[in-house]
Amino acid sequence: MTSVEASWAVSIIELGNLVSPLPAGILTNYVGRKPVLLAAGPMYIISWLMIIFYPTVLMLGAARIVQGIAMGLVYTAGPIYLGEIASKTTRGTISSIFFNSWWLGFLIEYTVGPYLTFYPFTYFTLLLNIPFLLLFCWQPDSPYFYLMNGEEEKARKSLKWFRDATPEELQEEMEEIKMSVEDLKKSSSVSDIVATPEERKALTILMVLSAVRLLSGTGAITVYATDIFNLTPKLVIPSDIVTIVLGIVLFVGGCISSFTSDSLGRRPLLMVSCVGTLLCQVCTGTYYYVLTNTSLDVSEYSWIAAVLIIVYCGLCTFGMYPVCSAYTSELFSSNTRGIASSLSAINVTIASFLILVIYQPITDYIGLYANFYFYSIVISSGGLYFYFYAPETKGKSFLQIKRELVSLYS
């Protein structure tokens, strides 16, 4: 492929991801969270078969669009499902599994990719879908979904399947779930989510957070990591190995958040993440500016840029990503949660497409450093907003969170 074709192959996945979240959000309330998630597996398999049997640039683009549609299903239904099957004391930990799995996928591909040729690598990635289909099909749907459809006995069995609890504890949680889905008979639409001040504020918080976490740099760095490290002179370690280390840090940062999300709380994680990533991006941008726009020879210190980029990614997955996943499942009522998740997924798609599209032109016409200064501006603006408006939801039921949003923003 030419560089232009390769650039479009990278970004065209967002076209598919743009069209599927809203229908997926509606479907989660009608057919369930589980069927929407399961549908992604066959779509991924079909997309890889398209690439294997028809290896052309056009078919690669079509397959990437199919993958984008599947990704939209997962991004919409995944956080909802995880948030609803978790107890209020472990919701942060369980919700963070979504992005931990995402980073594990990056790590697997980063690790295997350099050592396999095209077709073995494609077959390998295709086969990763098989365990998901075989294992996930045995799990029950969310107890919230069953209650939304008046199936109380199925909801009780689902809750029992997910809990190590006494009958009394299960009954207490069942009553809490019933109270939080009092509006379960209502149909959901975009108008429902902007009908009340607390829902509008919740949507604004989620949209800002979902955009900032990508526009702060991860959207481009995770895709262009090897290229960035190739532009960094005198790296002692090969760029492929540095990229693998980056994948490890992304995954480890997400895993650490699983242990801290429910102990430290959402706000502390978010603010530590914002302050740390801001410092990393400002320093990285300054290094590349001095490297390319001054007479100072800083190439001997190229390891600083690699370390800063890796630390940035670790801090981002430690804070912004798990909090975003938690907020997706915590800030909304049962009948608007699917719509909120789908709108967030669309927002992520637009932000991801934007950050991928502007990366190369900025690098070519201004310099690599300008990307990192742009990321710094995004983080500082987002951090100020989160400081004043991001709520603490740790250990609170959905009903408590909604009441606090009412009292804070009415």
Output the keywords.
mainly alpha
Report on the structure:
By secondary structure, the chain is an all-alpha fold. It has 20 helices and no strands. The protein is globular and about 70 Å long.
Helices and strands, with pairings:
Layout: H1 3-11, H2 13-19, H3 21-30, H4 33-53, H5 57-85, H6 91-112, H7 118-127, H8 129-136, H9 143-148, H10 152-162, H11 167-180, H12 190-193, H13 197-230, H14 239-264, H15 266-293, H16 302-318, H17 320-330, H18 334-365, H19 368-389, H20 398-409
Quick take:
The chain is built from 20 helices and no strands. With 410 residues, the protein is mainly α.
Shape: globular
Question: Helix and strand succession?
Answer: HHHHHHHHHHHHHHHHHHHH
Termini, distance in Å? 55 Å
Mean pLDDT figure: 86
Alpha-carbon Rg, integer:
22 Å
Query: Helicity, in percent?
Result: over 70%
| Major β-sheet annotation | none
Give the DSSP E fraction (strand runs of 2 or more residues): under 5%
Structural class: mainly alpha
User: What is the number of helical segments per DSSP (H or I, 4+ residues)?
Assistant: 20
Q: How many strand segments? A: 0
Low-pLDDT residue intervals, each spanning 5 or more residues:
none
